[in-house]
Amino acid sequence: MEKYLDKPGGIILKQAAIPAPGKSAYTAQYLAGIEEKCRTEYTPPDTIAVYFFFADSRYAEDTNNSKVLGVAYRNTSMALFEHTICGMSGGIGQPDRTKLESVVMQHELGHILGLVNAGTPIQQNHQDAPHGWHCDNSKCLMHYTVETGSVVQNLLGGYTPVLDQNCINDLKTSG
Question: How many CB atoms are closer than 10 A to CB 25?
Answer without folding.
Answer: 14
